[in-house]
Amino acid sequence: MTTVLIVDDQALQRMGFSMLLEAQPDMTVVGEAANGSEGVRMTAELRPDVVLMDVRMPGMDGIEATRRVVESGGRSRVLVLTTFDLDEYAYDSLRAGASGFLLKDAQPDELVAGVRAVAAGDAVISPGLTRKLIDTFGDRFPGNSPQQQRRLADLTQREQEVLTAIATGWTNSEIAERLHLAESTVKSHISRILPKIDARDRVQAVIFAYDTGLVRPI
Q1: Measured between alpha carbons, how far is 175 from 183 in angstroms, rounded to an integer?
Q2: Whole-prediction pTM value?
Q3: Which of 92, 110, 125, 181 is an S-S bond match for 185, by CB 3.0 to 4.6 Å?
Q4: SS3 at position 64
């Protein structure tokens, strides 16, 4: 059973999400929060699998709340709701550690599928869109730290090639074809890369690749 915490300042929005998710046989809503600070507190108390996080809220917004949830080191993953797919809120939410984002006008089945994907450890955003976001807002990159460079150095040459391919926006099948690998081998490489660079999913892996200069914005 996937547990979900809903964080949104609009009561009707929370009610709609709750009704939709509670109707799923494999999901249960464990709580609702009306603002970011309340969401951070309830995440720590309830330890949900997924936090469905609105971005624009009074007081602590969803981006800061996402950052605090992720930095706490808990098991909860954040799925952010944004208005536009290529705006700074989407970019900032990924920088804060969200496992992806959905548009607020997403279809009900897209929302349900997104929650399931995040709960399973996947990222709810295409690699290509991740790259577009970073190319659009990449001038904000703070530069890489010595710790990041050490993590990059821990990767084998092949793992760096695979990470570069991920950051370029290639799917697993495209990586397999272009690097002449079996798709299962690509998945194995990714499963080793993520813990080495301390990335929770491939979205964070893409950001790491840009942070360290392994790949640069266009």
Answers
A1: 8
A2: 0.79
A3: 181
A4: helix
Do residues 55 and 28 make contact, with C-beta atoms less than 8 angstroms apart?
Answer: no
Neighbours of 143 (CB within 10 A): 8
Segment 131-170, tens digit of pLDDT: 677 677 666 655 567 888 889 999 999 999 999 998 887 8
What b/e string do you get for 6-28 counting C-beta neighbours within 10 Å, with b at 16 or more? Answer: bbbbeeeebeebbebbeeeeebe
Q: Quick one: residue 213, left, alpha or beta (phi over 0 = left, psi -120 to 50 = alpha)?
A: left
Residue 5, strand partner residues: 31, 51
Place of tokens 């602590």: 60
Q: Which two tokens stand for residue 155?
A: 């990767």
Lowest mean pLDDT among 18-22, 77-81, 174-178, 200-204: 200-204
Cα 20 to Cα 211: distance, rounded to the nearest angstrom: 38
DSSP string, 67-81: HHHHHTT-S-EEEEE
Q: How far apart are CA 24 and CA 17, in angstroms?
A: 11
Q: Which long-range contacts (CB under 8 A, 24 or more apart) does 93-96 make?
A: 93/53, 93/55, 93/62, 93/63, 93/66, 94/125, 94/130, 94/133, 94/203, 94/204, 94/207, 95/207, 96/63, 96/64, 96/66, 96/67, 96/70
The residue type of 130 is: T
